[in-house]
Amino acid sequence: MTPSAKSTAPLNGIKILDLTRLLPGPACTLHLADLGADVIKIEDTQLGDYANWEFRALVNRNKHCMRLDLKKEAGQQVLLELVKEAHIFVESFRPGVMQRLGVDYPRLREVNPALVFCSITGFGQDGPLSEHPGHDINFCALSGVADQVGHPDTGPALSNVPFGDLLGGSMMATTGILAALFDAHRTGIGRHVDISIADAMLAQNFLPLAHLKQHQSQPQVGHTTLTGGRAFYAIYSTRDGRYIGVGAFEKKFWDAFCDLVQRPDLKPHHQTTDEHTIEYVKAELQSLFKSQDFGWWQEKLAHSHTCVTPILRPDEALQHPHFKARRMSLGAGDEQQLGCPIKMTDFEFSVRQTATPAGTHTRQLLASMGYDEQQIQQLFDQGAVA
Question: What confidence category does residue 6 fall into, taking pLDDT thresholds of 50, 70 and 90?
Answer without folding.
Answer: low
